[in-house]
C-alpha cells in the first residue's frame, strides 16, 4: 500500500494545520525583521539630528561637548578645533570633571571695574564669539591654598541656577595657579552705576519690576539654604532686556537650622543689619532682608539710604530712621553683646505699629502698601522682618501701578560695555579673616552729650570714638 504523501493532500486537516503554523511563523519572522530595521533607522536618524542640532533639548552633560552646551562648567584644555562629526562614533559619556580651559581662549575687551575692584573685565569667547564677563578671583589672604571665599563663590553659584541669579558658565585658569577666573554672561549695568548716572529715579512700576526680580532670586537662594551676605546695588546686575540678576557670591555661604555661629563682619556697612552691628553671633536670612530694605530705599531715592562712616555712626543713622528699639519692637535686643553699653533715651516715644512705620516724609511718592513693606523690611527686630515669600505676596506688588513688563523696560547706555570707569567711593564688603571690632555704643543716645566729634541723629547725639 502506497504510503500517503505528506504533501499529497491539501485537504488533510493535520497538514493544513502544519502549513498554517509555518505561514504564521514566517509572517512573525518578517514582522520582527521589519521592526528591527525600523529601530535601526530611527537610531540613525536620531544620531544624525544630534550631530546637526547645536542645542539638543535634553541630554547628559558630556565633557567633550562643551561647545554646544553653555551650562557646562569645566571643559578640556584644547577647545579650538571645530567638530566635524564626519564619523558616526557614539559620544563617550565621561564624568564632568576635566581640566579647565585657559583664559587665552578669551579676548579681553575692557575692564569693567577699575580701582578698588579692578578684577572684572568684559571679554569675547574666541571660539563662540560670545561676550562674557571675566571675574578674576582674589587670592589674597590665602597664601597656602585656594581662598575659601572663592570656593564658596563657585560652590554657591553652581547650586544657584535661577533666572535672577548670575549664571556661572565656566571656570578658567591663567598661566599661574593663582589665576582663576569665573566666566559669566555679560550684563550691561549694575544698579549702583546706573543709579549714579540717572537724573531721575526709576518709575514706581520699574522699581517694582526690579525689586520683584531681586526677591525672586533671593527667595530661591534662601530655599537652597544659602545666605548672600553682601546684597547691595553694585552686586545687582541689569541687562538691556530688563532682567535683573544677583551677582557677587564672594560672601555667600550655606547656613543651617538652628543657625551656626558665624562671623558678624559680613555685609557692606551701609547695608548691614542692626543685629550684626550689635554683635549677634547667630543670624540667618533676615540679614539679607535688611539689605533688601536698604536697596528698596535706594531705588526710591537714588541715594544709599544709610551712609554711616563707621559702625557706631551706622547704628546711629539706623535708629534715626527707624526710631530707637523698645522692649516692644525688639524684645531680645538687650541680650546682644554690643547692646549692653547702649543707653536708651529716657522716653522713647513708641510710634504706632510694630514694626513702626518709617517717616512718610522721607518717601513722599511711595504708596501706603509700599511704605508698609519697606518698614517691615527695615524692622529692627529680625524676627519681625518680612521674608522673601512674604514680600513676593505683598499687596505692594499687586496694587497699581503694577510691575512694568520686562519687555517694556527702558534701555540705558552701558558704561561697562564701552569704557573704563571709576566708581564713586563707596564702602566695600568686609575682608574675610578680619576681627569684628569691639564697639562702644555707650554714647549712641547722647548720654554724655555731643562734643566736637559728635554726629547729630534724630533726637539724639552720637559721639564718635
Ligand atoms: N556678569 C557681569 N556683567 C557685567 N558686569 C559685571 C558682571 N559681574 C560683575 N560685574 C561688574 O563688576 C563689578 C564687581 O563685580 P563683583 O562680582 O561684585 O566683584 P567684587 O567681589 O570685586 O565686588 C560689579 O559691581 C559690576 O559692575
Ligand atoms: Mg561686588
TrEMBL record:
Keywords: ATP-binding, Kinase, Nucleotide-binding, Serine/threonine-protein kinase, Transferase. It is an enzyme of class 2 (transferase). Its EC number is 2.7.11.22. It catalyses: L-threonyl-[protein] + ATP = O-phospho-L-threonyl-[protein] + ADP + H(+); L-seryl-[protein] + ATP = O-phospho-L-seryl-[protein] + ADP + H(+). Residues 446-457 have a biased composition (Gly residues). GO terms for cellular component: nucleus. Residues 22-41, 425-438 have a biased composition (Basic and acidic residues). PANTHER family: CELL DIVISION PROTEIN KINASE, CYCLIN-DEPENDENT KINASE 11A-RELATED. This is cyclin-dependent kinase. It comes from Aspergillus ellipticus CBS 707.79.
